[in-house]
Task: structure prediction
Amino acid sequence: MEQEQVFNFLDEKEGLEGFTAGEISHLEDVKKVMKFADYLFYILFLMLSLILTYNRKDKKFTLRLLKFGGIGTIVFVLLILIFTLVSFNFSFTVFHKIFFPQGNWTFPFDSKLIQTFPLEFFIEVSRNMFVLSLVLGVLIVGIGRKVMRK
Result:
């Protein structure tokens, strides 16, 4: 139930109860990072749509774009995956130092936030993100190759 409450808070559907001021502060920052990621996704999607629309008659360019975009995605995800597999804790720390430089992301082991979202939660979410990204990268490369053969 606490995870659902936090997710609703991050979606701005409800407030938080039972969390410390530090935990709420961190979750406010998480909300900002998630909004930034959403905006970045939409901007990149818009840019890709404009590039594909502008170059729609140049099939060769479009297919090369798909091929190299897919390969780039696969390589980038594999590098992060290897880095994470070598040391998840170190990767987790680097991630938090980049996105939460103010330092409000460390909590005692018995805090409600850590109990609600244990390390296993983040490992599973990370794994799912990597698998989805790899599948999409391979799919994009596959589509590009299949269309090029025709």
Summary: The chain has one domain: 2-149. The longest helix spans residues 21-54. Helices lie at 2-10, 21-54, 59-86, 88-99, 112-116, 119-149.
